[in-house]
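It is worth pausing here to work through a concrete case rather than discussing structure prediction in the abstract. The textbook approach is simple: state the sequence, then state the predicted structure, then interpret. We follow exactly that order.
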Amino acid sequence: MINVLYGHDNELKQIVYEAYLPLFQLLAQEIITLGIEAGQFRSAEPMETAGLLMTVYLGTCSQVNEEGRPWLRSQTVSDFALHALKTMAD
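Step two, the predicted structure:
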């Protein structure tokens, strides 16, 4: 994934961008923005925050052990992300 995103093949970069854009938009608009508006998440720039969450997600998925299992449990990753987004009052 890193080679694609930072490589010289602009056509392939565009394909990857278009494939992930709906997920970025869903995270930004339907989860992060609504969480901020509801007072559950701290104030943040939704698309930038979605980018950070996708980076954590993709990085976690790419780190596997000899058996092909992710090093980090999904619950650990989601707890980390939710803690980062929560308001200070929580």
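Step three, interpretation. The mean pLDDT is 86. Residues 10-37 form the longest helix (28 residues).
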